[in-house]
Amino acid sequence: MSDRNQSAPHRLLSLTEEELSRIVLDIHDGPVQYLFTALSLLTRIQDDVSRDPAKADLVPNLARVAMLLESSLYEIKFFLGTFRPPEFKRRSLVSIIEGLVLQHEEWTGNTVELTVEDVPEEVDLPVKIALYRILQEALSNAYRHAGVDRQWVRLWSEGEHVCLEVVDQGRGFEPPSPDELEAESSEAHIGLRGMRDRVALLNGEFHLFSRPGEGTRIMVKVPAHV
Known about the structure:
The chain has two domains: about 5-85; about 95-225, Histidine kinase-like ATPase, C-terminal domain (Heat Shock Protein 90, 2-Layer Sandwich). The chain is built from six helices and five strands. It has helices at about 10-50, 60-85, 95-110, 125-145, 180, 190-200; strands at about 110-115, 150-160, 160-170, 205-210, 215-225. Strand 4 (about 205-210) and strand 5 form a beta hairpin. The longest helix has about 45 residues, at about 10-50. The protein starts with 7 loop residues before the first helix and ends with a strand.
């Protein structure tokens, strides 16, 4: 489907990813480079101080500053990697999802059991973007909140639709009511609201099943072509 024929919501999904790419590049070329330069200078200062016994008391403080700089660089690089779009236009949906799963496993040490069944090779760009971001959010939420080191992901097709299921057997929670989910002031549900809204833009279905102590299951069904 050409960009000219796409509806406004679908163009919005693509434009959001383009804007995100620009933000990632700005962060990489700005703060990351400044932090890297500061860390390099600090390393040289540490070397100079270590050769001067009169300044030995500065060594522990310099080491702490170096550790903070290194931690900041790691956090920013992790953030950039998380939000760098994976060449959505060129790659297939299956390739994009497989790459995200491998990346999540590498960064977290968790295991993700991925099952792929009869997914069409041709899937429209807005659908790739939405399913990637939904899975990214679901994996991240489980890693941070569910208290588990294993998740299950299934990707398959039903007629003209693509379906995604993400399951964990973790802590679970009481799903928010529609009013709670709509509350703009509620930061606790921003991720869930974002997943739901992405699906709504594609005229799809979003289902969340969770109970305290019984894990969480997220189900998404969207048309392959929009």
